[in-house]
Amino acid sequence: MQSPIFRSFPAVLLAGLLAGFSLDAAAETPAAMAEHYAQRAAQERPGFTPDPARGEAFYRQNHGVSADMPGCHACHGPDPRQSGKHVITSKKIAPMAVSANPERFTDEAKIEKWFRRNCKEVLERECTAAEKADFLAWLVRQ
After folding, report:
1. How far is CA 16 from CA 9, 10, 21, in A?
2. In degrees, to the nearest 5, what angle opens at C-alpha 24 toward C-alphas 18 and 26?
3. CA–CA separation, 101 and 80 (whole Å)
4. pTM beyond 0.70, yes or no
């Protein structure tokens, strides 16, 4: 005869999985993602605290690597709350600021994909964890 504990085990397991799933989904807010990147940067640089002013300066800076794409602002525009346009393809780009685009920065895989692509285009290298944390700290406050 099967113990009542073992009969209820599948239900308990399913409830736990569903609870875990909903917690993960709720954690993927722009603010939670910004905190995630801040923690990652602090692991690489103990004592690191994200600075929105550094994030904004990074966005507006001409990095000097490409004349076509000198910085983030070249494609995303001077105001991250507005749509941008890719300087080469002319493809429209949704606003970067969370206030104008609440779905922005809610999926880590997408965040990493675009950081990797855009940092390589603008900097000819991947962005550091600290650069990402500062950038997100600024954009979630826009």
Report:
1. 10, 10, 8
2. 100
3. 10
4. yes
Residue type (1 letter), 122:
V
In the structure encoding, which two tokens stand for residue 119, read together?
């940092």
Cβ neighbors of 26 (< 8 A, separation 6 or more) are none
Could you write out the three-class secondary structure of 33-57?
Answer: HHHHHHHHHHHHCCCCCCCHHHHHH
Per-residue pLDDT of the chain (142 residues; tens, 9 = 90+): 554 544 443 443 334 434 444 334 444 899 999 999 999 999 999 999 999 999 999 999 999 788 888 999 999 999 999 999 999 999 999 999 999 999 999 999 999 999 999 999 999 999 999 999 999 999 999 8
The CATH topology of domain 30-139 is Cytochrome Bc1 Complex; Chain D, domain 2 (1.10.760)
> How many whole angstroms separate alpha carbon 121 and alpha carbon 59?
14
Q: What angle do CA 116, 110, 64 make, to 5 degrees?
A: 30
E strands of the chain, at which residues? 84-85, 92-93
Q: Which two tokens stand for residue 102?
A: 């609440």
Give the span between the Cα atoms of 88 and 75, in whole angstroms.
9
